[in-house]
Design brief:
By secondary structure, the chain is an alpha+beta fold. The chain has five helices and 19 strands. The chain is 36% helix and 24% strand. It is elongated. The chain starts with a helix and ends with a strand.
């Protein structure tokens, strides 16, 4: 009985293994692709990698860098916000520069006050004091002269009635009083003449130097507020409050490179809104509509393929959006006539690059049902 049980158990194990092997050997059908891979739409088409960016009449997006280093104190805009030229974007901590500017301003104001004081001389109150000193000196001289006359008259009547010492003292006192009057008169004339022209010129130069130092420091202080150099929309902000930024940009821990602190693209507009009405109040019915960013694509053609580029008048192009089967027709806009190393897409500036590319810019109409943003990589095929 025991052997029959073991035999049955072994038979069931073999049978289970066969069934499992059969089930696992059945091939499951492959899942359909999520999207159709991009293909060349032209028989002799040229392939190029492209990057979506906002429309610019020349150059690329506006990369905003500060002119002074420091710690970010306040960010005044948000990504996607429209700004006009001169709008404050970001504030760098200006405490040290502000204190220096205020100190130079106070020094310049003190120098200006001194200059005005020199130009305002003579002061009436000072001149009145000098006039009183002259009158006092005249009275002292008159007293000394009277005393001397008395001593001389007594000496002439009776030489023994006045000592030689007393007469000499009277003569000396009269001479001293006369000299004191002359000094008081000269001092009065000096005060009347006002400040010396050379003192005024020296003070003018001192004031101008301090004023220029203040203006320079104040101009530098203004640079601690980063402002929009042109009308546009904020595409990205690469820093945060408390982070350190410099004229080289903001450090990106992901790429370990320096990125622009703020990137501005072309101004946005509401759907069906004219370009010259971007900053006007939108019509009723468009208040809740998302603004539209005018986009273009900048593709980089390998220098080996540059001779094969069609004539711009006959050029056709098509863009494939990665991760989808969407293909968007492109319109030739312009060529940036400078062949540069292919580092624009990866920003690998320390990489040894042998390939050089020619930037070609196309415009396109953004499909309504497709999400597309500046900075997105796409595949571009160019033909004729």
């Amino acid at each position: 009985m025991r052997y029959k049980f073991l035999f049955s158990l072994a038979f069931l194990g073999v049978l289970s293994g066969c069934v499992a092997g059969y089930l696992f050997s059945i091939e499951k059908p492959a899942l359909p692709p999520a999207f159709k891979p991009p293909t060349n739409a032209y028989a002799q088409g040229i392939y190029a990698e492209g990057i979506v960016e906002s429309v610019q009449s020349s150059g690329e997006n506006v990369n905003v860098y500060p002119e002074v280093p420091g710690t970010v104190k306040q960010i005044l805009v948000s990504e996607g916000q429209e700004v006009k030229k001169g709008t404050p974007l970001l504030l760098i901590d200006p405490s040290v520069q502000q204190a220096t500017t205020e100190q130079l301003k106070s020094s310049a104001e003190a120098a200006q006050a001194m200059l005005e004081e020199l130009r305002a001389e003579p002061r009436k109150e000072t001149l009145d004091v000098n006039e009183a000193q002259v009158v006092s000196a005249q009275a002292a001289l008159k007293t000394a002269q009277d005393d001397l006359a008395k001593e001389q008259a007594a000496y002439e009547i009776d030489p023994k009635s006045v000592s030689k010492q007393a007469l000499d003292d009277a003569i000396n006192a009269e001479a001293v009083a006369r000299t004191n009057l002359l000094v008081a008169q000269k001092q009065r004339d000096l005060i009347k003449a006002g400040a010396w022209i050379y003192d005024i010129r020296n003070q003018e130069q001192t004031y101008n130097a301090l004023e220029n130092s203040y203006l320079s420091a104040n101009s530098l202080l203004a640079k601690y507020t980063l402002r929009a150099p042109a009308d546009g929309a904020v595409l990205s902000i690469a820093t945060t409050i408390g982070a350190y930024i410099s004229p080289q940009g903001a450090y990106d821990s992901y790429t370990q490179g320096m990125d622009p602190v703020i990137v501005l693209g072309s101004p946005q507009r509401a759907p069906n809104q004219p370009r010259d009405a971007r900053f006007a109040d939108p019509p009723v019915g468009q208040l809740n509509q998302q603004p539209v960013v005018e986009l273009e694509v900048r593709c980089y053609v390998d220098e080996i393929l540059v001779p094969r580029l069609p004539d711009p008048a006959k050029m056709k192009a098509q863009m494939s959006i990665r991760g989808s089967s969407v293909k968007v027709p492109l319109r030739f806009f312009r060529t940036q006539p400078y062949v540069s190393p292919k580092i624009e897409l990866s920003d690998a500036r320390q990489e040894l690059v042998d390939v050089r590319v020619l930037p070609v810019i196309f415009k396109f109409d953004k499909p309504k049902d497709v999400n597309l943003y500046p900075g997105e990589l796409v595949d571009v095929y160019i033909g004729d």
